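Progress note, sequence design subtask.
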């Protein structure tokens, strides 16, 4: 009798192990084949992961690289990325949070426009040039987190402007 119970328990454990191994993991990472690159420029992301980390060798996220990707929820941009070109994340309707490292110096026109669920945006200290309408059509974005004493940007009450408050870049839709 005890042998039969052990055998049944073993079979059940084996079935459970097979079933659990088939479940998707919560923190999937993109395969290198999901990234189309030209040298250090990310030309296009073709994967469907919800969380994506940009490869370390990338210094430029090209125009339209994630254009209208509807599965992307969170993007990790590593130190070393210097430029995010126009429309790079345009229409990423499920993108919720972004943190730009200090190495990012340039953000192109409408780079994060029409990101319907974007609520959390952190911009590092490296920004020296910013395009038009970078966050247009982001209805939930009400504030941008900047380091205290940011050298080039200032955000107050949803108004994103240069540090000396003489140029208004954008009034955030969610403010």
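Output:
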């Amino acid at each position: 009798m005890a042998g039969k119970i052990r055998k049944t328990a073993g079979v059940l454990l084996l079935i459970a192990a097979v079933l659990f191994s088939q479940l998707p993991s919560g923190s999937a990472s993109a395969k290198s084949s999901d990234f189309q690159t030209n040298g250090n420029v990310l030309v296009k992301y073709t994967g469907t992961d919800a969380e994506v980390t940009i490869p370390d060798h990338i210094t430029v996220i090209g125009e339209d690289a994630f254009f209208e990707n509807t599965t992307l929820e969170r993007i990790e941009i590593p130190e070393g990325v210097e430029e995010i070109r126009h429309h790079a994340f345009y229409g990423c309707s499920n993108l919720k949070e972004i943190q730009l490292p200090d190495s990012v110096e340039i953000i192109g026109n409408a780079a994060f426009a029409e990101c319907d669920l974007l609520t959390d945006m952190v911009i590092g200290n490296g920004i020296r040039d910013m395009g038009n309408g970078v966050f247009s059509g982001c209805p939930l974005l009400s504030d941008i987190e900047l380091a205290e004493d940011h050298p080039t940007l200032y955000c107050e009450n949803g108004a994103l402007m240069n540090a000396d408050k003489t140029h208004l870049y954008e009034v955030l839709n969610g403010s």
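Residues 142 and 174 are 4 Å apart (CA to CA). Work on this subtask will continue into the next period as scheduled.
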